[in-house]
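Supplementary Methods S3. Input chains for the assembly prediction are listed below.
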Amino acid sequence: MQLPQTKKAIVLLSGGLDSATTLAIAQSQGFSAFALSFSYGQRHTVELEFAQLQAESRGVVRHMVVPIDLRLFGGSALTDDIAVPKHRSMHEIGQKIPVTYVPARNTIFLSFALAYAESIGSNDILFLGVNALDYSGYLICRPEYIHAFEHLANLATAAGVGGKKMTIHAPLIKLSKADIIKKGLALGVDYARTLSCYDPVEHKACGYCDACQLRLKGFAENQSQDPAEYISLN
Amino acid sequence: MQLPQTKKAIVLLSGGLDSATTLAIAQSQGFSAFALSFSYGQRHTVELEFAQLQAESRGVVRHMVVPIDLRLFGGSALTDDIAVPKHRSMHEIGQKIPVTYVPARNTIFLSFALAYAESIGSNDILFLGVNALDYSGYLICRPEYIHAFEHLANLATAAGVGGKKMTIHAPLIKLSKADIIKKGLALGVDYARTLSCYDPVEHKACGYCDACQLRLKGFAENQSQDPAEYISLN
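Predicted structure tokens for the full assembly:
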């Protein structure tokens, strides 16, 4: 009789390209994946449909969707009715904190991932897909932040004291968007089933927001065609 | 014309004795208090009524109650149907992690407090009422944890980078329960409007769970009578 896989990992799954790649990396490293998504008052709940598609097609053990209402705290184009910037240059994209920033969002998400990790007991590993190069405006992406959360997690949790160490893996943190896509294509990620756009119409991406531009550039650098659907690209 | 108070603080308010005292301390230090409570699937939502009573009687600027469902992650007598231990000795109370531990709960609560702090903008101060002496089983209570969260907060937030430093105050962390009560009485905290019990019946405390025992001991050490209602004490 074959023993079941015992290495469990929580994978934060947003429905985007990065987290789909992170999920594939987790599985390629032998982890049983427990996916975690959030219904957080995002304007585009279609993201969650894409997360569900990834979870199903990659065969995760369980996909949990946690409802939290970040609109209570306001302040971002991803939850409020503020215009998403389009047609920004790569230089502009790298500058300052974008309006799509949600206060403390990622700290909240990681805290729930920590609770989930603890609750499934025998494992204590989290995965988080972030990218330090492309989204330099997002403070979450700094390695210092990942280390700080890992340190906190080990002070915070029962598991962290019981001898098992909580590890926060950020396998994308040193990769460019092109590198992420290259890795994901090699691992068979179905990028048609991902959505990165900040301003989609139904299931189609706009092609011109920061996220779309970075994604398209990444595919182009791989001499590859993005299989996702776009409204129009000209 | 008098200028409005500009120092704002988020105060985590549970309805218990500790957080009521923390609120009074925040106000005595000149902070305008923004109270934050959670509806997290706790078995006793009466806690929230006591939090509301404190918020109203102390005149906070706003009291926000955030719904989150920690039952998704199971594992505690505060959300599940596990018996609350009663009649434990003070020695037993100090031992190991109690069944009332909720995985990563306090990390989640602090993350929301961070979001709230950011969203009200001009201030970046949080208060948290914890007690290192009485609840030694609760890992949250260690100063290292508070420092770790503060460090994380400053890496995580836009405010933390913009030059303003986020500070996590834990004014009770070195106080015994008796010291906390002494301070609160001096600041006029109405302890009749607080509930500490893990197993209340309607609005009355049981008198025999760990929280009730610690509280009663604290009042006794102040030669004072706990004004809260108990089911019966004999």
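The two ends of chain B are 56 Å apart (CA to CA). Confidence is low (pLDDT under 50) at residues 132-140 of chain B.
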